[in-house]
Every structure is written in structure tokens, then in C-alpha cells.
């Protein structure tokens, strides 16, 4: 203290962040308070302190020693070291501290002198903010793990690894693991844990970003470079496990430059992917850029700049939570887009490309789901265009396609939205009528038969018109979809044998059962009856 009063010590300003020089036997720090107006009990606190212990001295010697892991029941300090100054201590008297040697003692620190009431208010706000930020990050990580397990998408797993490791890194760096989590046992290895979590966070961020922004398609050369850098960081993290002097030197020489290079390349890759049409890249840049800017500002502060910026540590916590939310929204948007694309692909696979109605597979899948409702009545209409081969042979396949399109469009218009219409193959169509009994189904079938005939679609050059034969079957107890369609198919064949252009209900005839899920048949035999001409309009 005498040497300090004589000007031989550098006096630290309590209003600025300053870098404490490293000393093998510890470092003395002299503070000159500039708050003469403070009255009553005062507290000297050190936010984001080094992991070692700090001792407060007066002219007679040491008063108290504390560290981030010290549990003081009277003066709880979260994420900081705090000393309760004696009441008799003058508000302008110099304060002498001794920092014990630690490997991270050269990081900038800040000293805050405040009343006990103000200290408790600020400490409460900090613990609320830090707890909320870490809780958001961990919650997003756990949700992502659940989605990764359910969807089998490793993109969610890499996101969870990144968010959780970053949350752990912030908890260690801010002292949250010591107070309020009381994990004091990790103090000796806190620096190693911090370095390991930094490496894990960056590696998982790279792997997440590569998949999330689809760099394989949008920026393949940047993807390869980022994966190479992630591999180098993995080797550095592995070397750190051995904790040898040479490995520590390699880590100190390469780790931070690799972090900076990797972060910059990720921004570049995200920008390139965005310009080339990657929608998720927009979410990535919105979430990643604020955190990257804060990291750069923190690096500048560690180097001695931005001494008046006191909120970077707290901002990094909040930015981590915001980034976790933005990327989670991006993942949700990506999942919805993938689900929509899958739904569109499924619809295309289930739709007949010519007529736009369900194809055979799509109709069977949908009909089986409808048949699970055993409380409703179900009827099947099996429809086959009469003499369709003649139309193709005489008027061409283009005319045949137009006839099929007209047939499907009119059937869809005539049926209800809840009825299932499908093209079973070739010129065959099938419809499942839910909640319809036999009598009503027969009326619907007759209406469909008349509607197609009124379209007056030419069948050949002699004035014959296209007609349809329809077979009707109604569900019975213990019926399956296959057996129901089989009876409707047999009824349709009876309609053809009775002259075509008519409806036959299965109740009117005894039919033989035949397999239903068969390949499309050839055109029916046309020798039993001539097709109707325009004058033959009866059904």
C-alpha cells in the first residue's frame, strides 16, 4: 500500500475493463474507487472473474479470500466474485486485491463497487437472465434430440450437440456452473472443459450447417473446406486430452485462428447458399451473425480494446438463446418444407397422370382406410367403358385419352367429395361410396351411366357413342375391400353380357368370384352386342 501511494503501482479504474498482467506468484491489483457518494454497506464485485481465488487486503493484512466456487451464505454471488467491505471502509480509500495465478489471468476483468441493495438487484437480474438463456438453449437442444430420434434426421442431432455444448461453454465461462449450480469440483479442469466444449460447439456447428443449408448442392467446394477444418479441430481436441507441453503449445498456436477462420467461412458458405436458393441459409445467417459479431468483439476486448463495453458476456448468453430459437424455427420450417414436398410426391405417386384421379395403388390405400369404419355402409361401383378398343383403333389414342379425361371429370363432378374415385386400369374406373346403401348407390350408378351417354363422345366414324357398364356391390359383414371389389367387378361383367350401357346390382344375379387385384384386362369381346348409335339413347 505504501508503494502504491508513492506511485510505484498501476492503479486500476473501477469503471473500465482492464487486463491483469500474468504473474507466476500471483498478481497484486490496486483499485482507486471513484464513488464518494456511496453510503452504508458496500460490495466490491468482479463479474466474469478468473477461475482462481482472490484475496482482499487492508493495511493490516488479508481480510477475506474468495473464488467463483466459494459458498458464502451471507453474500451470494452468481457468476462473479464478491467482497462485503467493512462499514468503516472509506468510500474513497484504495482497495488492494491479490489474484492467485491461473492460466487465464490475462483476460480482462471489471470491478464494480455498489451498495449491498444495488448488488442484490443486479445479481438477481443476472441470475434470471442467465437461467432463462441457458434454459432456452438446453430446451431447444432436447427438443431437437427428440425430433432427431423420431425423424431419423441427423441435422437435428448436430443442432442439439451445438446448442448444448455452447450452453455448457457459457455456463463455465460465466461461472454459472459454480454458482448457483454448485459444481465446484470442476474448477481444476474448468479451462480444459471450456476448450473441449468450444471445439465440440464449433465442430457440431459446421456439421449442422453443412446439412441444414444443403452445402453439398449449393456450395460444394466450401463444404469440403469446412469439413477439412472441422477435422483439424477434432485432431486438436484429441491432442488436448494428452495434456503435454507440446500439445498445449499447438493448441495455443492453432486453436483460435482455426475458430476465426471456420466462423468466417461459415458466414461465407451461408451467404453463397442463400444466393443460390437455400431458404434455411437465411435462418442460419440470422442466428449465427449476431453471435459471431459478439465473439469478434470479445476477442477485441481480450486484446485490450473496447474497455468501456461491459455487457459482452451477458450479451453472448442472450445471443446464444436467440440463436437457438432462430435455428429451431429454421429447423421447423425445413421440416415443414420437407413434409410438404413428401406430401406432394406422395400425391403425384397416387394420382393417375392422365385423368388426375387416384391410380390403382392410391385408391386401394385410401379405400382400405375408409373400410376400417365398420359403422358405415359402403358401396362399390366398378365401371368399364364399352368398346373402348374400337375408339382407340378408329379415332386414335389421342381421342381415347380425351374420352378418359372426360369420363373422369364427369364422374368426379357427379360424386360427392367424400366418395373415392380411382382409375383401376386402362378404361376401368372404380368408386367407393361411403354411407350409401344399395338403393341409393343404384340411383347414383344409373345417373352416372346416363351422364356419360349424354356426353355423346364419338366411338367411331359411324356415329356410335361411348357408353359405360357399371357393376354395383354393397358391403356385407366380414367383407374385405378385395371381396367387395370382386363382386362389383363380377356384376359389371354381367352388365356387359346383358347388352352393355347399363347398371347391374349384385343382388340381381349370382356371380362367380374372381381375383380382383389383377393386371388390366384386354379390351372386352365386341361380338355379343353392337354399340348404340345416336338414336339408341335408352339406358
TrEMBL record:
Record's catalysed reaction(s): 2 GTP = 3',3'-c-di-GMP + 2 diphosphate
Cross-referenced InterPro entries: 7TMR_DISM_rcpt_extracell_dom1, Diguanylate_Cyclase, GGDEF_dom, Nucleotide_cyclase, Rev_trsase/Diguanyl_cyclase
SUPFAM superfamilies: Nucleotide cyclase
Cofactor(s) of this protein: Mg(2+)
Transmembrane segments: 125-147, 159-178, 184-210, 222-242, 254-275, 282-303, 315-332
Region Disordered: start-end pairs: 498-539
EC number of the protein: 2.7.7.65
UniProt keyword annotations, A-Z: Membrane, Transmembrane, Transmembrane helix
Superkingdom of source: Bacteria
Basic and acidic residues bias (residue ranges): 502-513, 530-539
Protein name, per record: diguanylate cyclase
Amino acid at each position: 500500500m505504501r508503494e502504491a501511494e508513492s506511485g510505484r503501482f498501476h492503479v486500476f479504474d473501477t469503471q473500465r475493463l482492464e487486463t491483469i498482467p500474468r504473474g507466476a506468484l500471483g498478481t497484486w491489483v490496486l483499485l482507486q474507487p471513484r464513488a464518494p457518494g456511496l453510503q452504508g454497506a458496500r460490495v466490491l464485485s468482479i463479474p466474469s472473474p478468473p477461475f482462481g481465488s482472490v484475496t482482499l487486503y487492508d493495511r493490516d493484512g488479508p481480510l477475506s479470500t474468495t473464488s467463483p466456487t466459494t459458498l458464502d451464505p451471507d453474500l451470494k454471488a452468481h457468476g462473479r466474485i464478491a467482497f462485503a467491505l467493512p462499514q468503516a471502509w472509506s468510500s474513497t480509500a484504495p482497495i488492494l486485491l491479490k489474484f492467485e495465478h491461473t492460466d487465464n489471468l490475462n483476460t480482462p476483468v471489471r470491478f464494480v463497487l455498489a451498495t449491498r441493495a444495488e448488488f442484490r438487484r443486479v445479481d438477481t437480474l443476472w441470475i434470471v437472465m442467465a437461467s432463462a438463456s441457458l434454459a432456452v438453449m438446453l430446451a431447444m437442444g432436447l427438443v431437437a434430440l427428440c425430433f432427431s430420434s423420431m425423424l431419423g434426421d441427423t441435422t437435428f442431432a448436430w443442432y442439439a450437440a451445438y446448442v448444448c455444448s455452447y450452453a455448457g461453454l457459457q455456463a463455465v465461462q460465466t461461472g454459472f456452473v459454480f454458482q448457483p449450480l454448485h459444481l465446484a469440483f470442476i474448477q481444476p479442469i474448468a479451462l480444459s472443459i471450456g476448450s473441449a466444449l468450444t471445439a465440440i460447439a464449433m465442430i457440431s456447428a459446421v456439421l449442422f450447417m453443412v446439412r441444414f443449408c444443403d452445402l453439398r448442392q449449393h456450395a460444394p467446394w466450401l463444404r469440403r473446406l469446412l469439413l477439412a477444418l472441422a477435422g483439424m479441430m477434432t485432431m486438436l481436441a484429441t491432442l488436448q486430452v494428452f495434456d503435454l507441453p507440446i500439445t498445449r503449445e499447438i493448441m495455443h498456436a492453432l486453436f483460435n485462428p482455426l475458430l476465426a477462420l471456420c466462423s468466417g467461412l461459415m458466414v461465407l458458405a451461408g451467404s453463397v447458399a442463400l444466393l443460390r436458393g437455400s431458404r434455411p441459409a437465411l435462418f442460419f445467417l440470422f442466428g449465427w451473425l449476431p453471435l459471431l459479431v459478439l465473439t469478434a468483439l470479445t476477442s477485441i476486448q481480450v486484446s485490450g480494446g473496447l474497455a468501456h463495453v461491459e455487457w459482452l458476456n451477458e450479451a453472448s448468453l442472450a445471443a446464444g438463446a436467440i440463436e437457438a430459437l432462430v435455428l429451431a424455427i429454421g429447423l421447423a420450417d425445413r421440416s415443414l418444407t420437407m413434409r410438404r414436398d413428401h406430401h406432394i410426391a406422395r400425391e403425384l405417386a397416387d394420382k393417375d397422370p392422365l385423368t388426375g384421379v387416384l391410380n390403382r395403388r392410391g385408391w386401394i390405400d385410401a379405400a382400405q382406410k375408409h373400410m376400417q369404419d365398420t359403422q358405415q355402409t359402403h358401396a362399390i361401383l366398378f365401371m368399364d367403358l364399352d368398346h373402348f378398343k374400337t375408339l382407340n383403333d378408329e379415332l386414335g389414342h389421342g381421342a381415347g385419352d380425351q374420352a378418359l379425361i372426360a369420363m373422369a371429370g364427369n364422374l368426379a363432378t357427379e360424386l360427392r367429395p367424400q366418395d373415392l374415385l380411382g382409375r383401376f386400369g386402362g378404361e376401368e374406373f372404380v368408386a367407393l361410396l361411403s354411407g350409401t346403401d344399395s338403393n341409393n348407390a343404384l340411383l347414383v350408378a344409373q345417373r352416372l351411366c346416363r351422364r356419360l351417354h349424354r356426353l355423346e363422345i364419338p366411338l367411331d366414324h359411324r356415329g356410335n357413342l361411348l357408353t359405360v357398364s357399371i357393376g354395383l356391390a354393397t358391403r356385407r359383414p366380414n367383407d374385405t375391400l378385395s371381396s367387395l371389389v370382386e363382386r362389383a367387378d363380377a356384376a359389371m361383367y354381367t352388365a356387359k353380357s346383358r347388352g352393355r350401357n347399363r347398371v347391374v346390382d349384385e343382388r340381381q344375379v349370382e356371380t362367380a368370384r374372381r381375383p380382383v387385384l389383377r393386371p388390366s384386362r384386354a379390351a372386352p369381346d365386341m361380338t355379343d352386342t353392337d354399340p348404340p348409335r345416336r338414336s339408341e339413347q335408352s339406358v
